[in-house]
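User: For my dataset I need records formatted as: sequence, then structure tokens, nothing else. Please produce one.
Assistant:
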Amino acid sequence: MTVIEHVYDIPSDDELAQLVGAATPHFALQIRDRVAKLAAALPEDHPRRPALLAHIAHLEDLAFRGEAGAGAPQDLPPLPSLVVPAEPG
């Protein structure tokens, strides 16, 4: 059996939280596709399906809207702007 043919189990809640929680806007759609494949393999009435669909919606939002920084206060004072001296002449 090749890696592509292997059927992976649905990840636990902790495993799924690690996968989705580490997502950045750049990789959100790739992770969404992985989660969507897992959701598609489940029957419509499977108890894990709503959580997977919620993660898919979160990842799509992250991919298209990005993420806002926490806005933490800076611990260093801002540097002055660079001023290029005029050339003599």
